[in-house]
Amino acid sequence: MSDSINFNIIGIAHTPYKQKFGIPRQPGLAPDIPGTLVINPPFNREEAFRSIEEFSHLWVSFVFHGIQQNKWQAMVRPPRLGGNKKVGVFASRSTHRPNPLGLSVVKLESIEIKPQQLLLHISSHDLLDQTPVVDIKPYLPYSDAIETASNGYAPAPESNLYEVKFSKQSLDFIDRWQHQQAENLKSQLVSILSQDPRPAYSKDDPQRQSYGMKLYNLDIQFSIENNCMKIDDITQI
């Protein structure tokens, strides 16, 4: 038996997340961030997706493309353990895996069929822009959601989210900015930053209080003040 398997890339994810920093650590944490799965030919046939609109959520299998390939680690430092404790890679959702495959549940907003093109519009995702998609399956709540399952060392996210404030400069920019995918940029920024996207190792660094992330074609500059996330400035890249 061969020790390798070839996959077909059935589609590409187009999302506002242009870098890993700022992406929620799990899907569903920033529910109002839009995204689109553009299906590649020959898989973009209408009959291949017939009845998919009957499901509210989908499993998306994808490739971690924004990492160094062929460099897996047996032990990793999960963010939920503060980045200070190691666990086995198969006891984590780390991207540094023998096979860089990811699996996320996303919300299906709509399906759009055009000549020679099929699009799945989604939300509640954690996909980096240009992520290659290798499979799509319906999410079945009666079998996929197990009420008695244990969370291990990764309990549910805390309910006490960070407060997010906006400078006058950032609010002025939001009022002027127009983008076909962003109906409410302000609420999208709140959903991302309230989760505290900073890596665990930087949270204890008193010298670093300013950060930047890219969303859409924007550079978002924010800082930490008294346990509050403050968006200082937004500029177009």
Radius of gyration equals 19 Å
Largest sheet: 6 strands, antiparallel, barrel
Silhouette: globular
Instruction: Report the β-strand fraction as a percent range.
Output: 25-35%
Distance between the first and last residues' Cα: 49 Å
Measured as a percent range, the helix fraction is 10-25%
- Give the CATH class of the largest domain: Mainly Beta
CATH fold naming of the largest domain: Elongation Factor Tu (Ef-tu), domain 3
Order of helices and strands: EEEEEEEEHEHHHEEE
Number of strands: 12
Q: Name the CATH architecture of the largest domain.
A: Beta Barrel
Query: Unreliable segments (pLDDT under 50, ≥5 consecutive)?
Result: none
Assembly state of the chains shown: single chain
CATH superfamily of the largest domain: YaeB-like
Please tally the helical runs, counting DSSP H or I stretches of 4 or more residues. Answer: 4
Strand order of the largest sheet: 1-2-7-6-3-8
Q: How would you portray this structure in words?
A:
With 237 residues, the protein is mainly β. The protein is globular and about 55 Å long. The protein has helices at 141-144, 168-176, 185-193, 200-203, and strands at residues 11-14, 35-39, 57-63, 75-76, 87-88, 101-114, 117-123, 131-138, 163-166, 210-215, 218-225, 228-236. It has two domains: 11-144, YaeB-like (Elongation Factor Tu (Ef-tu), domain 3, Beta Barrel), CATH 2.40.30; 163-236, RelE-like (YaeB-like fold).
